[in-house]
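Quick one, T. Sequence first:
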Amino acid sequence: MIVGPDDVKELRSLGLPAFFVSALQAPDQRTYSQGSGDYRSEYLRFEQIIQKYEEWRQASPTWVTRQQAGASWEGRPVWVYRLREPTTPIPPKSVVLQAGIHAREWISPAVVMHLFNHLRELAQTSILHRWLINEVEVCVFPVQNPDGYEYTWTSNRFWRKNRRNNGSSYGVDLNRNYSKGWGGAGSSGNPSSSTYRGPAPFSEPETQAVRDFVATLPNFVGFIDYHSYGQYILWPWGYTTNPPPDRVEFDRIGRAMEQAVEDPFGMDYRQGQTSTTLYIASGVSNDWAYDVYGALAFAIELRDRGTYGFELPPEQIRPTQDENFLAFEVFLLEVAR
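Structure tokens:
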């Protein structure tokens, strides 16, 4: 078992026999980034990711805009990039994609980069995709947890939380810090735990940024939070095993997304309610989006099933991006109707 330095106390509290072997070394950055800046073949640092979005904004200045939704504990900007058809006469529907809420899940920002850029590219030549961004504005948080993400590059590859100073430990699990079901099962009140929910709902500046930005959208209808790993397409509720009011609709759309994501490479994804398909998790983002706004809200666990875990090899970036774009198209068509 590999645990982070802040998890040792909790491990010992379980009464399990354990002994220390050695500490993991900080990752060799050359293992993950060769400096080409190709987000389809290598993982990028936070600033490199933002640089790519900036390139797309400069290439399509009337379609792509950005704003700073907030700032992290360490002062890094929490950016939002927005893609829409600028000639739309009325405010379109809006969907929000969230990447990198858990720092160690590097494939998440990489996939969302491709969803955003490939849609931007296709909209220039495809009537269907031009119609989609005419009907639906796509808003992306490229890396919602920038402090934690950078920490995985410099200090601890398997860090999960943000970098709040709790006194004797660091970090809040941002995906236990949303309001719906906050404090329930599947989260922890122990600051040293990897699922520490924080002192209150939306106590963290990173989750406040999402909450406050979404509140400005006139017609917020869809939300996807990208994670790894396990290959799941999950819908509310996470905090309880009771089914949501829109269970039938979620199941129908989830099955369509499941079929789409599996078609290109035959990868086996499983769709269903979070609490009964994966595990109970309280205070999660898609429960909040569905509860407060009635949004079509999913959490997608990307590749793989555990062979590589959080260290998905760079050669699997492109196929993971490609298969998930097809599921994203299904999602966009649903919310655009």
